[in-house]
Specification:
The chain is of the alpha+beta class. It contains 11 helices and 9 strands. The chain has a domain of 221 residues: Replication Fork Single-Stranded Dna Binding Protein (Replication Fork Single-Stranded DNA Binding Protein, Alpha-Beta Complex), CATH 3.90.198.10. The strands form 2 sheets. Strands 1, 4, 5, 6, 7, 8 and 9 form a 7-stranded antiparallel β-sheet that branches. A two-stranded antiparallel ribbon has the order 2-3. The protein binds zinc ion (ZN).
């Protein structure tokens, strides 16, 4: 028996295990492993830097980029600030997110075909209706963001943020629209953009709310270096073929088995709370704004604000004023007031964001 065990051990002593480790590392960013519809840029060994929007208050900048060849809404080389895309979520056994070929690219999508066929059937149970509803594509947005919640967050530089369209983009567009046809605030412009303040309440799928979105004066310069670091968001999208999606989807139908969510890409570190930081930034932004306009700023520091839900949420426009716009909305270039990087004379980047 001991002999047999010794024989087993010897099988692990060669280079085979090392090779397995190397192979596993090569597959680290493969689609399906993490379930997202986007992966690190081709040829990049660095994991995606993902921003996790936790409960509480946040201040972020949205950093624009020039659309790559795969952007479904914006011409290559044109500036934009987001990827606004329809995604089927939790598809198949591995519960992968899959970009919808029909909604985004006007091509045949096996999941949409399945949904349409099923809906032709009569007398579907409530449960079945519910399951079908979950398969509907959801509108998701990807952004390059810099988060100013803490010095550690800020030091991470540009991070990728995925969020539901109705939770953020829809709200920010309503804040960005100037009254009485006064156009939009080019909030993502590197030169005359704004920081965005908002609050997240709740962390579950059904109870999460984003509240109180407002623009505040930026305290940091968006340097050329940062602009260069922004992800070309459309290049991150893993666009599967019809057959690949079908295979993934049907595999899931055959064995509807729950799978524990594994570690997805690089998770942000746990950032220690630096609650004063947000208050300080708000105050500084207020002062800057106050100087410019010569009147008292309207933003209260967080300590004085009412509990969100009453104060924050009520700032939103009524829904009627921003009915569903066509997806083309996403085409709006970020800085239409001439914000193309490098074309304008800009202040020399300061060292403000570098910590000693
Ligand atoms: Zn679809």
């Amino acid at each position: 028996m001991a002999e047999k065990r010794k024989g087993l051990r010897s099988k692990f002593s060669g280079k085979a295990l090392l090779k397995r480790t190397e192979e596993a590392h090569q597959r680290i960013n493969e689609y399906g492993k993490f379930g997202r519809f986007y992966t690190a840029p081709k040829g990049s060994s660095a994991p995606l830097k993902l921003w996790k929007c936790k409960e509480g208050e946040h201040i972020i900048d949205i950093i624009p980029f020039l659309a790559g060849p795969s952007h479904h809404q914006v011409r290559e080389g044109e500036p934009t600030y987001l990827l606004d895309i329809w995604v089927h979520q939790k598809v198949g056994m591995d519960e992968n997110d899959v970009v919808c070929l029909a909604r985004n690219y006007n091509e045949a999508c096996p999941i949409c075909e399945y949904l349409n066929a099923k809906r032709m059937e009569k007398d579907l149970s409530e449960e079945a209706e519910d399951a079908l509803g979950k398969l509907n594509p959801k509108r998701r947005c990807l952004y390059n963001v810099i988060c100013y919640d803490s010095s550690r967050e800020e030091d991470r530089g540009i991070q990728l943020w995925e969020v539901a369209h109705f939770l953020f983009e829809k709200k920010i567009l309503s804040v960005a629209r100037n009254p009485r046809g006064g156009g939009f605030v080019p909030f993502s412009s590197p030169d005359n953009g704004k920081s965005i303040y908002f609050e997240r309440e709740g962390s579950g799928i059904t109870n999460t709310q984003y509240l109180g979105h407002k623009f505040i004066e930026r305290q940091s310069t968006i340097t050329d270096e940062l602009l260069g670091e922004a992800y070309i968001l459309d290049e991150l999208v893993n666009r599967l073929t019809y057959d690949e999606i079908k295979k993934m989807f049907l595999g899931g139908l055959a064995k509807p088995k729950k799978k524990a969510e594994s570690g997805k890409a690089e998770q942000p570190d746990d950032i220690p709370e630096e609650t004063n930081r947000i208050a300080q930034r708000l105050e500084a932004a207020n002062q800057k704004e106050g100087q410019g306009k010569g009147r008292a700023p309207s933003i209260k520091p967080p300590s004085q604000r009412q509990k969100a839900g009453s104060g924050g949420g009520s700032r939103q426009r009524p829904a009627a004023s921003q009915q569903q716009r066509p997806t083309g909305q996403g085409k709006r270039p970020a800085g239409r007031q001439g914000a193309a990087p490098g074309q304008r004379k800009r202040p020399v980047p300061t060292q403000r964001r570098k910590k000693p």
